[in-house]
Write a structure and sequence with these properties.
This protein is α+β, with helices and mostly antiparallel strands. Helices cover 34% and strands 34% of the residues. Strand 2 and strand 3 form a beta hairpin. The protein has 3 helices and 7 strands.
Length: 149
């Protein structure tokens, strides 16, 4: 109730335009910086991290290697992420910091392969493609040797 009585008093004393200007100034000085900070924080998240999107295929047939183990290691920090390729040989890892990475791919019956890849942030929501082709193990190494009697 006091608030209702106070407003007419202020209006009589300072005038309606002065009160409107004061309220607008209060909104601009308190509300606008919060909007600016929220916008900067949202934009910053998009430019700080990146992603790799890879495929694993066989060098002799070109077929995808399902279930291949993928290990992504940031060379500067040593942070490692482990992934498994899906049925189409695809894998994805997001939220990675920019820098140089070693990507190690292995699968049963294939030789392990390491790839160096630099992750740089070019555009938001863009993944760096990492195609990896695995060579099959030699025939003698792929088959277990029978025990000798």
């Amino acid at each position: 109730m006091n608030r209702l009585r106070l407003r007419p008093r202020l209006a009589r004393r300072f005038g309606r335009r002065a009160i409107s200007a004061a309220l607008a100034l209060a909104f601009v000085t308190t509300g606008l910086p919060l909007v600016a900070v929220a916008t900067v924080a949202t934009t910053a998240q998009d430019t700080v991290t990146g992603a790799f999107q890879g495929t694993v295929t066989s060098s002799d047939t070109g077929d995808p290697v399902a279930g291949a183990a993928v290990e992504i290691t940031h060379r500067e920090t040593g942070q490692t992420h482990a992934k498994t390729a899906d049925a189409l040989g695809r894998w994805y890892q997001g939220l990675l910091h920019p820098g140089l990475y070693t990507i190690r791919v292995s699968a049963p019956g294939f030789q392990t392969k390491e790839v160096s890849q630099r992750l740089f942030i070019a555009k938001a929501n863009e993944a760096i493609p990492v195609p990896v082709t695995l060579d099959p193990l030699p025939a003698a190494a792929a088959r277990p040797t029978p025990p000798t009697a």
